[in-house]
Specification:
With about 160 residues, the chain is an all-alpha fold. It contains 7 helices and no strands.
């Protein structure tokens, strides 16, 4: 991703935030200063609240991000990104927690949102495929009983049709 246009990249981040249904407004001033408090809630939402499929998948892969302070959470996020998504963040955790590198942080969070959305779509499709493959049991009509597939013929007496 190209750097040099902070305002545009903050707008792109806002679009990604809508895509992951993050309803809290981005504090543009904090984001423009590179304050980690502007970006951490978005990462929390992306990994832990956006998709139950992603959250369950992370737990299944042995990653526990819930009961952590911000530093441990970010280290866990970096580990997930490296191991599961094969993504190398351009910022170290130390750089992320400084009030600098605003544009790189915005680009990083945009990338994370896209990766998480892509993983959600993949896991959701897998879930739907499993549901389609699950055998369904069909109730067979029992003998001697009426069902929706059985037609009842009433005898109305002798036929008046001439052959």
């Amino acid at each position: 991703m190209a750097t040099g246009d902070l305002a545009n990249n903050v707008q792109r981040l806002r679009v990604e935030m809508r895509q992951i249904r993050f309803d809290v407004d981005l504090d543009v001033e904090k984001a423009a200063c590179g304050d980690p408090e502007a970006f951490l809630p978005i990462l929390h939402h992306a990994f832990l609240r956006y998709s139950r499929f992603v959250a369950q998948w992370l737990i299944g892969q042995g990653h526990e991000l819930y009961p952590r302070n911000d530093l441990r959470f970010l280290e866990g996020v970096y580990k997930v990104l490296r191991q599961e998504f094969e993504y190398r963040p351009s910022l170290s955790t130390g750089q992320f927690f400084t009030n600098m590198f605003a544009e790189r942080k915005a680009l990083f969070v945009i990338d994370v949102c896209r990766l998480v959305r892509k993983k959600h779509d993949q896991l959701y499709c897998d879930h739907c495929e499993k549901r389609k493959r699950r055998p369904t049991t069909k109730m067979e009509p029992q003998r001697g009983r009426l069902s929706s597939e059985t037609t009842v013929v009433h005898d109305m007496g002798p036929s008046t049709e001439k052959a």
